[in-house]
Amino acid sequence: MAYKALFTQPYSTAEMQRVAELGIDATYIEESAFSEPGFSLPEQLRDIDLLVGYNPFVGLDLDQLPALKFIQLVSVGFNHVPAGDIQRLGIDIAHNVGATRFPISEWVLCQLLQIYKKAKVFCRQQQAHQWQVQTDILELTGKTVTFLGAGNIAVETARKLKAFDCRTQALNLNEDPVENIDEVIDIARIDEVLPHSDIVISALPATKETFHLLNGDRLRAMKDTAALVNISRGTVIDQQALIEVLRSGKFRGVALDVFEQEPLDAGDPLWDMENVYITPHNAIFSDLSASRVFELVYGNLAHFVRGEPVEHPVHFDRGY
């Protein structure tokens, strides 16, 4: 049986040939086209079985795609998809789980080393042609790293941190052992754990339960010398409370790739704070990330064609 697919993310000729060999007739439309005024999906594509992309939904009416059976997102997050329509129409949907853990874990290491080695100070000194020794330099050796969440990003980052002789622990919904994590602790004990953590890394999804999990009280309870990293969802941290805590002189450094509102407003105080490192939701990218995402996409398309359960289905009720 032949299947028709619409791709809104570009892949190489060789990669699309592999898709064709699964018996899938794929058409590519650049995703930006879906947000153009007056966009209408060509009539000949309204009988597609499969949809692969990030966010073409702004220009798609799923009710006009009666044959659509499966959506593969290239993103981890799915708060941009029309969940109600997808559930009502009985369309299966999966997201990207695991393909971005490698570049994200490297980004975390980069930020921690910048914070511990005072990278901003040395960059300024270089620009000013200033030779001044800095002795307030920290090592990662022996530091206690607490992950909020124990998913694939935490596991891969913890594996890399082991090379620095860090002690790793994770706050999670259960205390089942997790690879590369020295100790998994019930997240209900968060107020007990945070004050003793040298580094806190948020790797949690955006759910009702995780909204502002790191509120003002919990931020203030952390070590003054702690490093805080957020690579998951901006809503996990109360951003206004974070600004207020930073103004009090708290934290060795804070590295943020995600924010409550994106893009971050040009007038936001976080931009100008000396101990804050900002990237624009960029940690997922690398020279290898696109090929890894394709392999995930290809694997699930193969499962679909063979009538097998797809991997990483979206659970709208859980939020991940």
TrEMBL record:
Residue ranges of every copy of the D-isomer specific 2-hydroxyacid dehydrogenase NAD-binding domain listed in the record: 111-283
Superkingdom of origin organism: Bacteria
InterPro entries with a match to the protein in the record: D-isomer_2_OHA_DH_cat_dom, D-isomer_DH_NAD-bd, NAD(P)-bd_dom_sf
Domain D-isomer specific 2-hydroxyacid dehydrogenase catalytic, first and last residues per copy: 41-314
GO function terms (MF aspect): NAD binding; oxidoreductase activity, acting on the CH-OH group of donors, NAD or NADP as acceptor
Pfam families in the cross-refs: 2-Hacid_dh, 2-Hacid_dh_C
Alphabetized UniProt keyword annotations: NAD, Oxidoreductase
Enzyme Commission number: 1.-.-.-
The family this protein is said to belong to: Belongs to the D-isomer specific 2-hydroxyacid dehydrogenase family.
Name of this protein: Putative 2-hydroxyacid dehydrogenase HI_1556
